[in-house]
Amino acid sequence: MSSQAFSLLHRGVQEAIFKRGWKELHAIQAETIPWIIEGHGHLLISAHTAGGKTEAAFLPIISTLANNPRSSVQALYIGPLVALINDQFERLETLCSDVDVPVHRWHGSASATEKRKLRDSPGGILLITPESLESNFINYGKHLRRIYADLKFIVIDELHSFLSSVRGVHLRSLIARLVAATGCNPRLVGLSATLGDPNHARSFLAPDAPETVKLITGKGDLTLQFGIKAYLHNESKDLGYLPRWHIGDLYNTLEGLTTFQAKEKYPLHSVLQNDPDDSQSVTTDELDDIASHILHRCKDHTNLIFGNAKQSLEVLADRLHAAVKSSGSLQDPFHVHHGSLSKEVREETEAILKSGKPATVLCSSTLEMGIDIGSVWRVMQLDAPWTVASLRQRMGRSGRREGQTARMCVYSRDDSPHKKSSLTDLLFPKLLRAIALAELMFSRWLEPHDGDRFHLSTLVHQILSCLRETGGMSSEALFSILINRGAFRKVSKRMFLGVLSSLGECHFIEQIPTGELILAPEGESVTANRDFYAAFASSEEFIVRHDENEIGKLQSSLVPPIGEDIILGGRRWRVIDVHSTCKTVFVSVSEGGKAPLFRGPGGEIHNRVVDEMHIILSSDSEIPYLDGAAQTLLKSARAMARQSGVLSAGFIVRDNSIQWFPWLGTRGFLTLELQARCSGIATESDILSITYRNTNFQQWQEHLSLIGCGERTALELAKHMKIKTFEKFDETIREELLDETNSRDRLDLASASSIARKTLFHAKSISHS
DNA sequence: GACCTGCTGCGGCATG
Questions:
Q1: Confidence class for position A596, pLDDT limits 50, 70, 90
Q2: pTM for this model (two decimals)
Q3: pLDDT-based confidence at A350, cuts 50/70/90?
Q4: Which of A52, A92, A161 is nearest to A400 (CA)?
Q5: A669: nearest nucleotide, CA–C1' criterion
Q6: Which of A172, A404, A496, A691 has the greatest number of CB atoms lying within 10 Å of its CB?
Q7: Which nucleotide comes closest to A162 if you measure CA to C1'?
Q8: 3-state secondary structure A27-74
Q9: Mean pLDDT over residues A247-265, rounded?
């Protein structure tokens, strides 16, 4: 070990490095050590998951603390997951074994003794979640100054998971309050593997001077094996309904697919059909083909299969278990891991992954973040995700070390053409999205973070927290700590006062004669609940139990009746009892079953992704990573797009309606729908197009002209939104304020107006010719 | 048309 950086470290830290048998420091560690030890400013470290980021930050931090011990927490590590904190706790304890720097942890599963010990004699490093830091303000407000008086560093792990999220704004607010309460001036260190524009992360760490944040990035690109395989759902060969010019293309498509499926077919279909209890799932479909493909490729190594919906993962796991059973194999390598499974079930799966035995885990975003699960051979993705960031993050789980190969396969499923197929369906939009996301990922584009949102729900959360912490504050003091010096700088004084009056109206807060604001009965009750610590919303759930074991959870509105079967954790269960009082569903092992529904709020697709779909449709260039079926479907979609006119003009004029493909992301699309609603035009939408009912070409052009000239404000449009509350405390905020935030956060007037002007230009040229 | 994350303090009792 000859590095200059190494010589800067404390002797005890050097000792710990020798004990671990490290021969060299990683490049990012050698670069980080002097920057931290010599006392420069904030820092952002971006490198692969296994690139040694944690050590890069903590080797010099521990050295600094060891040279200057204080009776205050000197370094905070903030992690998004309890499991991650437990992982890192062990690593840091090893690093600190030869120096006198205590390591503490504080989260919901940490013991009361651990927490008391930290409170009684604070010092060294504390690993904590944002919610537990919040609990410090609520329960130990008076002790904050003592516990954190000499705080020097705040390390935020998986920083990308906090950028522009409710949880991230919450965290920023807590850090600002901590600085205000203690007068300390900590240096911030952000760690992340997936950063789009580093400037957003810089602004998160230092909103007033983002340019001062030093960026250290890991080197070394990965070799990548990437492929997209296309499948059709509910295959049908009835083509009599299609326009004549298209039949040839589509026959090619289906011929191609039939051969393709026959070649890949695994004898799963006969097994399922022989099962008398299984009348609901006897049909062979595209999922069986996908299962068979996976089965052949996942016999060895550690693999992850990501999905977008828990339900689809459960169904696929069930098919894979059945396929293993029918193959006569005693070893079933398939496991399920998602947020609705119990901690015990998930920990068991994590242990199998860590053991290094061959295992393939079907998971949602629960395994996206850096829990150490060892090396992943291949990542698969069932259906394209919604964002490039998600595709990138998931791909990064494979081939995590330099020199390794990252392998990823996306299984894309579209509806098979049938008599009632819409034009949108015939463009195979899910395959298009998969290709668009991949193209953007290869071009190193990621969705930008939206730092301009108001986050009024989280502001409400922090107002309540401040009043709980202090017992009462003036509105000026609240404004100063949360807005002027805090995380809600986009909120104006007028909006802030509006939020305060809203809270008064619903009895969350009240004003006492001195002018101070205090919690009113509703506010007292909300903040006394354990559920309060998190700033994000959560729904009521029932626990699913089999004998003494907790299997997982179901949304309370979606609990099936007694006697019905469900699939959970990739296994089949029958509901034998439901206890509403203790919110528990009791189950026994069963043979039948269908996967339960889990309902979420839906996501957001960026303009750039939809634009890329349009570019791919317009182009003739070959996409090398598509399988035969995907190539055939893309060829067919391109021909369909060209001949139907949705590329050039973007619209199709019918007898009494117009179908328009505006090629906009979620916000712009919703803006166009609201424009029509404001004008009293009835519309129907699918994922790519809006159809204007009972509208002739002339009327539609007038409507476009109105959108194009931007006469209606976004606020006017937001007033017509059907759903207006999205986050935890939105219900407490006046409608007019919600309209104002929704107009900023959920609509895109500029893109909608711009595309309306362009389309109107095309429409006029057609009218003239 | 989706996913994920998080979480007290205290009284009472048994044990060493």
A1: low
A2: 0.87
A3: confident
A4: A52
A5: B1
A6: A172
A7: B5
A8: HHHHHHHHHHHCCCCCEEEECCCCCCHHHHHHHHHHHHHHCCCCCCEE
A9: 32
